[in-house]
Amino acid sequence: MVDPGLVVVDKSPGMTSHDVVARVRRLAGTRKVGHAGTLDPMATGVLVLGVDRATRLLGHLMLTEKAYDATIRLGAVTTTDDAEGEVVSTHDVGGVREDDVRTELARFVGDIEQVPTAVSAIKVDGQRAYARVRAGEQVELKARPVTIHELVVHEVDLPEVRISVRCSSGTYIRAIARDLGAALGVGGHLSALRRTAVGSFDLSVARTLDELADDFAVVPIADAARSTFPFIDLADEQAADVRFGRPLDLELPGAGPHAVFAPDGEFLALYEQSGAKAKPVAVFV
């Protein structure tokens, strides 16, 4: 059994996120493994997993921003908004100009309302949307607020468009492909997707499953917390209060969860400001 921490996987195409979790469970020698946000089987790249008590960090990691490299193929609409779905209509892209593509993509940057793709993991009346679609139902999802921090157009070589996106959690890159195609009147879908970062964890620290099988590497939970959240080093008396889940007479330097550490460097908890005191969000000891 390995120590608790995070495992940063460079996922191969064709695998589900559950497939990766199952493999890491075997490598780590524990069933207590979870992931911080799914990647579709078609997609590759960064998938962050938690081992043992570090799984409790994952819900907070899922709220961090993510980055992707993507290829959009214009001129074809699919049932899933990506290359894995059936083509339902095709259109000539001969009248589309590069300037039009760039102009429309620029409209996605900022705080926007995005309708998630119908084959998403969002629950509709207790059932995943993708399960309802596969059962033949027509699923209509409501638009949700997301933030596109940055969208860089690398190449427009019609019918393909290569982009990089840095965005908030909950953003669907497939939906950007779909909406770009709709805006241009020719349809579109995602033909390739690679997640390059989840929060502070990027491809530079990600390892393939084959590499992990040879040398199983875990980011220790304390290192993961320091690299992901703003952090505070506490005095002994404060650390003792944290171990009992008590509020702290402390003004945190910003909003959101902060990692708090004992004087010896042990990661203790996530705390958040609530009025005049800092209160525990999750205690790990």
UniProtKB/TrEMBL annotation:
Coiled coil location: none
GO biological process terms, semicolon-separated: mRNA pseudouridine synthesis; tRNA pseudouridine synthesis
EC number(s): the record gives 5.4.99.25
Instruction: Please list the residues that make up the active site.
Output: D40 (nucleophile)
Query: Domain tRNA pseudouridylate synthase B C-terminal spans what residues?
Result: 174-216
Please list the residue ranges annotated as the tRNA pseudouridine synthase II TruB subfamily 2 C-terminal domain: 229-284
Family the entry assigns? Belongs to the pseudouridine synthase TruB family. Type 1 subfamily.
According to UniProt, the name of this protein is tRNA pseudouridine synthase B
Specify the species. Nocardioides zhouii
Q: What is the lineage of its organism?
A: Bacteria, Bacillati, Actinomycetota, Actinomycetes, Propionibacteriales
The UniProt gene name for this protein comes to: truB
